[in-house]
Amino acid sequence: MGKALIIGAGGVASVAVHKCVQNSEVFEEICIASRTKSKCDELKAKLDGGKTKITTAQVDADNVDELIALINEVKPDIVMNLALPYQDLTIMDACLATKTNYMDTANYEPEDTAKFEYSWQWDYKERFEKAGITALLGSGFDPGVTGVFSAYALKHYFDEIEYIDILDCNGGDHGYPFATNFNPEINIREVSANGRYWENGEWIETKPMEIKRVYDFKEVGEKDMYLLYHEELESLAKNIPGLKRIRFFMTFGQSYLTHLKALENVGMTSIEPIEYEGKQIIPLQFLKAVLPDPASLGPRTVGKTNIGCIFKGKKDGQDKTYYVYNICDHQECFKEVGSQAISYTTGVPAMIGAAMVMTGKWNKPGVYNVEEFNPDPFMEELNKWGLPWVEDFNPVLVDELPEEAKESELVR
Ligand code: NDP
User: Fold this and answer.
1) What sequence ranges are listed for the domain Saccharopine dehydrogenase-like C-terminal (predicted)?
2) Which of 21, 38, 287, 388 is most buried, with most CB under 10 Å away?
3) What is the rounded average pLDDT of the residues 96-120?
4) Which atom of ligand 1 is nearest to 39's Cα?
């Protein structure tokens, strides 16, 4: 069918590459390009010999000219941006210059401020339309599958969705007192920021981890979960008509929160540069360097993830609730692709999103979030490529749970 250029060779990219190679009918050829070429070569060495032809390249994705040169050389049907959110705009610029389709799994972030907003990327809409190319934003799990779940719920079960709660539970245990499951810098920025949710057309801000509930997750059990801001809230609030409220909850263990609080208190999570021995360093980037590499957690992580969305709304004038979720087993993922479930649950939808664009199922010039496309083919592919989903038409709603202590460890 076609050729993809994959940028990045970290945890998520590694899973996506495994999955592209499994889906060789669509991905006849892939080029893996990243800052550190040896990581791309390692992946190639592991997976070479199948039907998908694999090449590798070195690229600095902060440099538009380098990207353009690489895209012109490889001539891919799509660029899969699996590097970091800082590279989104340079890669989009290079795609525009070469008229190549684009996809990613996380919204653009400036290095110096944690914003988590789509505005910069949505600004490219007209230019992508004019160039006749598609940009698919946020095709991981959350954002990604959670948007597809929302579009699917709206298409098949509701006339109107009024409430969405996204519940992201990681019941995995890696045995370290503190480590992050994906890029530590991005992860810590996300959880140490203020919480926010959308209600009646307005954003309501909370302190970090101010709102806590205990939820009993299928196949995982009871977990503490906290309200966080998460980027798909912005696009879903815009794209799901009639929505009254959307919130996002993520589970955290006590050890993680205690360590994070201590690191915050001593300034290690700051993104403000400081001078150290005559050199400017960013404390959070230094912290990343001393923490375990998320890719190394695979062999030692046991347990399951359970991520999904609970919807409440109306169908034929009646109240209706619907919960759709996926359960993923860390060890099963490791056996299959050598990564834990967090990378797996992101890498699989990244491959599927790219395949949707390459096969023409999700091909529409402009810049779009996943929920703006027909969810059905994506939902089918989730079942096929390792992320089967489960439906529950009588779920326990978050609003039915007792409120937990307001003062969490992270409220300063
Ligand atoms: P990693 O840190 O494991 O990997 C990032 C990769 O990008 C590395 O290979 C790194 O290269 C490469 N890279 C970084 N900067 C550049 C650059 N300037 N030029 C070229 N390559 C570069 O991150 P993850 O795999 O965990 O995460 C990848 C993306 O997925 C992130 O954007 C993250 O936010 C997103 N994500 C999305 C989720 C979702 O559900 N939607 C969930 C989890 C993650 P090097 O090896 O040299 O460092």
Assistant:
1) 140-386
2) 21
3) 90
4) 46
Give the tens place of pLDDT for each residue, 175-211.
998 998 888 888 888 888 899 999 999 999 999 889 9
Q: Verify whether ligand 1 is closer than 6 Å to residue 90 (CB atom).
A: no
Rounded to whole angstroms, how far apart are CA atoms 227 and 195?
6
DSSP 132-183: T-EEEE--BTTTBHHHHHHHHHHHHT-SEEEEEEEEEEE--B-S-SS--SS-
Nearest to 369 by CA among 130, 181, 124: 124
Residue 107 in contact with ligand 1 by CB distance below 6 A? no
In sequence order, what are the residues at sequence separation of 6 or more whose Cβ sits closer than 8 angstroms to the Cβ of residue 193? 114, 116, 208, 228, 229
Q: Mean pLDDT over residues 210-231, rounded?
A: 96
Cα 337 to Cα 206: distance, rounded to the nearest angstrom = 38
* Strands of 78-81's sheet in order across: 53-58, 27-34, 2-7, 78-81, 101-104, 134-137, 366-369
Residue 352 host element (H or E): helix 341-358
Give the global pTM: 0.94
Q: Taking 90 as the threshold, does the pLDDT of residue 31 lie above it?
A: yes
How far apart (Å, rounded) are the C-alpha atoms in residues 381 and 386? 9
pLDDT at residue number 406? 54
User: Whose alpha carbon is nearest atom 34 of ligand 1?
Assistant: 106
**Tokens read off for 245:** 């409220």
> Which carries the bigger pLDDT value, residue 184 or residue 14?
14
The sign one gets for the Cα dihedral 72, 77, 83, 84 is positive
Window from 32-36, 283-287, 310-314, 388-392 with minimum mean pLDDT: 283-287
Separation CA 385–CA 319 (nearest Å): 33
- Please tell me if the CB atom of residue 10 comes closer than 6 angstroms to any atom of ligand 1: yes
Mean pLDDT of 266-286: 94
**Are the C-beta atoms of residues 135 and 368 closer than 8 Å to each other?**
yes
